[in-house]
Amino acid sequence: MLPIILLSVFGIVLLFMGFLKSKVLLLPATLVFILAALATTFMDWGKTYLYFQNMLLTNNLAILFTTIVLLSAFMVVALSNSFIEDEQAQPAEYYALLLFSLVGAIMMISFENLIMLFVGVEILSVAMYVLAGSDKHSPRSNEAALKYFLMGAFATGIMLFGIALLYGATGTFVVSGIKSYVYTNAYGVSLLLYMGIILLLIGMLFKVSAAPFHFWTPDVYDGTPGLFTAFMSTVVKTAGFAALFRVLSVSFVGVYSFWWGTLAALTCLTLLIGNVTAVYQTSFKRMMAYSSISHAGYLLIGLTALGTQTKQALVFYSLAYSLATISAFGVLLVVSRQRQDTNGVNENFDAFNGLARQNPLLGFVMAVSMLSLAGIPLTAGFWGKFMIFTTAADKGIYWILVFAVLMSTVGIYYYFRVIIAMYFREGAAEPVKVAPFYRYVLIAATILTLVLGLAPGLLEGLV
Amino acid sequence: MLSDFGIILLFILAAFAFISLVLFGASFLRPDRPNVEKMSTYESGEEPVGNANVQFNIRFYVVALIFVLFDVELVFLFPWATVFGQKTLINETKGLWGWFSLAEMSIFVLTLALGLAYAWVKGYLSWVKPQQKIPTVDTKVPQSLYDQVNKKYQPKAKASQPASGTV
């Protein structure tokens, strides 16, 4: 489990690098640190190891999720060059917090003991609460941080209560221990176990912003500085679903008939609320918040129809979603900063008017990411949806499949609003300036999206 | 036979019984002659002023946070100490156990010390004093004239009066 140790040490190093006069070194150092962690992650490839007295377990699935998380973090950090110019920003602290939150994310991905899950959730969340309020002079950012903190702390408390009840029922915190308890007592499972499952699910579904625990998402995503919104909607979601998958597929698969109905109902509710509310948004950032709720719904389908294909579908979908979301936020960041209106940064749909004419590259990047999020063929998002829907079809839950397809047609409407604004509306005459490195990151994300869309078999057989 | 939780229940019941017995017993036995001074909040005579729900200075929170940090560190040291000093473990490993656990604890304490150093260098520990606002009056009378008047009519300090009252 070298990446956890490395990232913790690197985080402290970054904190103290903040005392250097020059801030130029911070960004490349952070990128190198994340790459080093990524490299050490692959040392365990192909093997299954238990670490720290059965606290953490690494296998190929955990390594793949860790890779997605670290890759997203790498791209988000690479898009953060604006901090260096900003006088009030504290880049060293932001980067250190990002690395610390990655430690939490990796713990959530590879936990074997439920205590580790709780510690991971807390490490990730506390860092995110601070980053949500990192724009200290903006009331919206402060509101976002306070809302996220109060509601997040409450959800974590509920989750911890669930873990305590699970311990009461099974006498163990270990994921595989709970599994063997469920199998040995298949007909006389204690009521505490059911309560524990429900409370644990509530806590985790809050973190991945599934309805009806999604109320914080729009306000928090909207108020948080754009870069950290991108981090929040990719890393936190991927780690949350990895944790949900591990606990559901290992511990609770024996009582599948108990929780699948609840999860199916929440999936449909999430899809409905996310997609329908996104249609009515005028702010692009708020639309992305509701879109992230709806994508949580699609990912939940994979969990509801838990089967042999689920892990592959989850990995592919998380990767496709992360790539598309980061490039969308990357374009939003430059555009909103350079096309300001009277209220400061303009994050509405009309900021994108005529973008494709002045900046064909930015327009193309945004168009590909929107197509991927909407699930149009030749992009990674299409195959992600395809795999998720296949799991539901394999399990024979056709009604959820029909509902999800209907909802993704609703999704096409609001994703295409951006494309229409970029390609068919008249906008500002002067093009948006993009730094070279920034451009490379956006191009890389777009190419990855297209490659995965053309050759979805690349990830096949890894898990 | 009582289970472990049964004993805890007995403890709780006994605690309630004991408290109520002592309090009610005392109120039956003691003489009851209240007066104004006895009913005041502080017997020392200090008069409570205002509401307790006031805004605290934000500086106290930083101090409280750092205090909690080191308090928790101390709590960790106690269970560690019992493991560290286990003679059987030390003998079995020929003293390696002691060094191992000592190194582990030093890493933990050093990491926290780094955090303290960070807060220190950042200046979060220095107690920022508020700037005193001295009221100024736009007038043609020179300040020295005021000082003379103040000096002349300065109230004579009484021995019983606290010094702060005169400023």
TrEMBL record, chain A:
Record's keyword annotation contains Transport: yes
A GO-annotated cellular component: plasma membrane
Translocase in keyword set: yes
GO MF annotation terms: NADH dehydrogenase (quinone) (non-electrogenic) activity; NADH dehydrogenase (ubiquinone) activity; quinone binding
Key words, A-Z: Cell membrane, Membrane, NAD, Quinone, Translocase, Transmembrane, Transmembrane helix, Transport
Reactions the enzyme catalyzes: a quinone + NADH + 5 H(+)(in) = a quinol + NAD(+) + 4 H(+)(out)
Topological category with respect to the lipid bilayer: Multi-pass membrane protein
Bilayer-spanning residue ranges: 24-42, 62-80, 92-109, 115-133, 145-167, 187-206, 227-252, 258-280, 287-308, 314-335, 361-384, 396-416, 437-459
EC category: translocase
A single BP term in Gene Ontology: ATP synthesis coupled electron transport
Record InterPro entries: NADH-Q_OxRdtase_suN/2, ND/Mrp_TM
Protein family: Belongs to the complex I subunit 2 family.
Subunit structure: NDH-1 is composed of 14 different subunits. Subunits NuoA, H, J, K, L, M, N constitute the membrane sector of the complex.
PANTHER family recorded: NADH DEHYDROGENASE
Function: NDH-1 shuttles electrons from NADH, via FMN and iron-sulfur (Fe-S) centers, to quinones in the respiratory chain. The immediate electron acceptor for the enzyme in this species is believed to be a menaquinone. Couples the redox reaction to proton translocation (for every two electrons transferred, four hydrogen ions are translocated across the cytoplasmic membrane), and thus conserves the redox energy in a proton gradient.
NCBIfam families (alphabetical): NDH_I_N
The protein, known as: NADH-quinone oxidoreductase subunit N
Gene designation: nuoN
UniProtKB/TrEMBL annotation, chain B:
Main location: membrane
Membrane spanning stretches: 6-29, 60-84, 96-121
Acetylation as UniProt keyword: no
Subcellular location: Cell membrane; Membrane
Pfam families noted in UniProt: Oxidored_q4 (PF00507)
MF (Gene Ontology): NADH dehydrogenase (quinone) (non-electrogenic) activity; NADH dehydrogenase (ubiquinone) activity; quinone binding
Keyword Mitochondrion: no
CC terms in the record's Gene Ontology section: NADH dehydrogenase complex; plasma membrane
UniProtKB keywords: Cell membrane, Membrane, NAD, Quinone, Translocase, Transmembrane, Transmembrane helix, Transport
Enzyme type, top EC level: translocase
EC number: 7.1.1.-
Domain of life: Bacteria
Catalytic reactions on record: a quinone + NADH + 5 H(+)(in) = a quinol + NAD(+) + 4 H(+)(out)
Coiled coil location: none
Membrane topology: Multi-pass membrane protein
Recorded family membership: Belongs to the complex I subunit 3 family.
Job description of the protein: NDH-1 shuttles electrons from NADH, via FMN and iron-sulfur (Fe-S) centers, to quinones in the respiratory chain. The immediate electron acceptor for the enzyme in this species is believed to be a menaquinone. Couples the redox reaction to proton translocation (for every two electrons transferred, four hydrogen ions are translocated across the cytoplasmic membrane), and thus conserves the redox energy in a proton gradient.
Subunit structure comment from the entry: NDH-1 is composed of 14 different subunits. Subunits NuoA, H, J, K, L, M, N constitute the membrane sector of the complex.
Protein name: NADH-quinone oxidoreductase subunit A
Record organism: Arsenicibacter rosenii
